Amino acid sequence: MSDAAPHREETFGDLVGRALANRSFVIGLFITLVVAGMALVSFFWTPFDVTRLIVADRMQPPSAAHWFGTDHFGRDVLSMIMLGARNSIAVALVAVVIGMGIGVPLGCWAAARGGWIDEALMRFNDVVFAFPALLSAIMITAVFGPSAVNAIIAIGIFNIPVFARVARAGALSIWPREYILAARAAGKNKTRITIEHILPNIANLLLVQGTIQFALGILAEAALSYVGLGTQPPMPSWGRMLFDAQTLMMVAPWLALFPGCAILLTVLGLNLLGDGISDIFDPRARRRI
Amino acid sequence: MTAYLLKRLLIGMVTLGVASVVVFLMLEVVPGDPARLMLGMNASDAQVELLRDQMGLNQPLVVRYLTWAGGLLSLDFGKSYTYSVPVIDLIKERLVVSFPLAIIALTLSTLIAIPVGLFAAARRGKAADTAAMAVAQVGVAMPNFWFALLLVYVFAVWLRLVPAGGFPGWGNGVWPALKALILPAMALALPQAAILARVTRAALIEVLSEDYIRTARAKGMPMRAVLWRHALRNAMIPVLTIMGLQFAFLLAGTIIIENVFYLPGLGRLVFQAITQRDLIVVESVVMLLVAAVVVVNLLVDLSYAVVDPRLRTRQ
Questions:
Q1: Phi and psi of B148, rounded to 5°?
Q2: How many CA atoms lie within 13 A of B245 on its CB side?
Q3: Residues in B 12-51 with any Cβ partner in A closer than 8 A
Q4: Has residue A85 got a pLDDT over 70?
Q5: Could you give phi then psi for residue A4, rounded to 5 degrees?
Q6: Top-level CATH class of A67-288?
Q7: What is the pLDDT of residues B261-275, one digit of tens each?
């Protein structure tokens, strides 16, 4: 568009148009929707019932009946992957909600108050960052017992400082703006300014970080389940399926192939989605339009 | 710069202090009496009480914390509940596996990531750049333990080039030991390299738009020389920062990967200790790893000054 074009406010339609023109966004959204759809469908339908063990059907290679083959108990791998999707998404999503729910208010508070509160919160963040997150998650699940709920808490705790940091950095860049000054002159207090002006303006940053932490949560849940500290059998989980597949790899390599692909695709989809959202909202890209 | 480093050092020390309190308190709430665990089910209450006294378990919480934390400072981690040997000996035994593994993985990841980042940045927007970044995107999404399984399938089961797991020890020659570490190191390094390559590329692209790069090109300096001599050095700060952050991931990854390959390293030690409720070992290893992360991040701060002389004099 030329510089002479008259300036007009961007409509929601423009935003959708720009989103659909972004390759990362479209591919990422597609993959994410497929995985989410798979998880939703699993609530009322899976190709086979995974609670029934049919020994006669065990370790069948992929076929027309069992697209992804069957495992050592005769369970359909595709059905297990669908249930695993539900499990992975639930764990990672709740962990993101915990991280955002506590981290964002903390970060906004630190940015609004400044001074020693800000300093103390950020130093505390540094402490949490020094813990290798997965190691601490291992310790937490080991201490409080292995379960999906403890995995969620362990992953969620390490999302808190991440969101606090992003929210604080975003908020600090908004506070000096003129419209904030205007809002303050109008007599709005800091809490109200944060809710009405700061949060809407850092929402895109939080959304991008949300997809990143969601993806990391999927990876962390898989790793925890793989070492036996995450979701417990009989609930299928991708990490646990890979652990079971390891000893059977010589005879049934497909058991190790499909759950891994499921993790890879889900994480890839979320990362692409995050890249796409970040491109769409990038102010530098916006100026070029 | 000195003031900055002192501040970082102080933060590092505070981090360790807070970490030690958190780790100590967390394992304090674990159900189960270590003394009873050591003596077994058939021990009498009096015997258990005697051992609790000997182990100092009947002292107040603060005293026990101070004794433990004081011991950490002099590398005296106490005695393992299950093996009845000093924890430091167990750690030393396992460190000869985990430490080389982490170093090999870090080296591999750097050796892959920086050339790939340079390659992609120099061809920004071209097919080669797009392809390299697509591969990196997949690499970022790859769970390292799954990648490890695939490597085992291809190189150990199918091609039979390396063992599928286990560790022969350094006593039987360096080569067999290295052979046992090469697949785990690759599994750890490649996903890390993918992230690092993306960061390197992004940092280089930022630097390549600077005026001094255009000047260097204008006076006839070849692109390759510009990249290596001017651009890379100036792009090193974000790359080093990410390498520092990745070190924590690398350590945690080592724990998982050691379990895939049955390597007798710190990761295996932690898992055995967790199942045996040998909490003092868990505490010690966690603290050791946190200390490693703090030290590495201090080194990263120091390396900024080495890479960028301007930082040495800046206030």
A1: -60, -45
A2: 14
A3: 14-16, 18-19, 23, 26-27, 29-30
A4: yes
A5: -75, -15
A6: mainly alpha
A7: 888 988 888 888 887
For the CA atoms of A101, A103, A104, A110, the dihedral, rounded to the nearest 10 degrees, stands at: 140
Q: How many CB atoms lie within 10 A of CB A5?
A: 8
Residue range B199-220: average pLDDT?
A: 87
Residues from chain B contacting residue A126 (CB–CB below 8 Å): 11, 15
Q: Which of B142, B149, B290 is closest, CB to CB, to A130?
A: B290
pLDDT digits (tens, 9 = 90+) for A14-58: 878 888 888 889 999 999 999 999 989 888 888 777 777 777 777
Those residues whose C-beta lies under 8 Å from the C-beta of residue B64, and which sit 6 or more positions away, are B56, B57
Candidates B102, B129, B244, B143; CA nearest to B198 is B129
Domains assigned to chain B: 2-73 (no CATH), 95-312 (1.10.3720.10)
In B193-232, the residues whose Cβ lies within 8 Å of chain A are none
Tokens matching residue B245: 């952050």
Q: What is the CA radius of gyration of chain A?
A: 23
pTM of the model: 0.86
> Which DSSP symbol is given to A9?
P
Residue with tokens 């460190």: B95
**Token code pair at residue A101:** 């729910």
Mutating which of B13, B140, B145, B206 best tests the A interface, going by the most A Cβ atoms within 10 A?
B145
Question: Is the pLDDT confidence value at A234 over 90?
Answer: no
- Structure tokens belonging to residue B146: 């799954």
**Segment A117-126 mean pLDDT:** 83
Selecting from A132, A223, A271 the residue whose C-beta is nearest the C-beta of B143 gives A223
B235 touching chain A per CB within 8 A: no
Q: How big is the A-B interface in CB pairs under 8 Å?
A: 115
Residue B138 near chain A (CB below 8 Å) = yes
The ipTM (two decimal places) reads: 0.83
Between A230 and A66, residue with greater pLDDT = A230
Whole-number average pLDDT of chain A:
84
Mean pLDDT of the B267-284 span: 83
Any bridge partners for residue A70, and if so which? A76
CB A206, CB A107: distance < 8 Å? no
Helix ranges (DSSP H) in A63-198? 77-113, 115-130, 133-144, 148-174, 178-185, 190-193
A232: DSSP letter: P
Taking the C-alpha atoms of residue A234 and residue A218, their distance in angstroms, rounded to an integer, is: 19
| Chain B residues inside the 8 Å CB shell of A25 | none
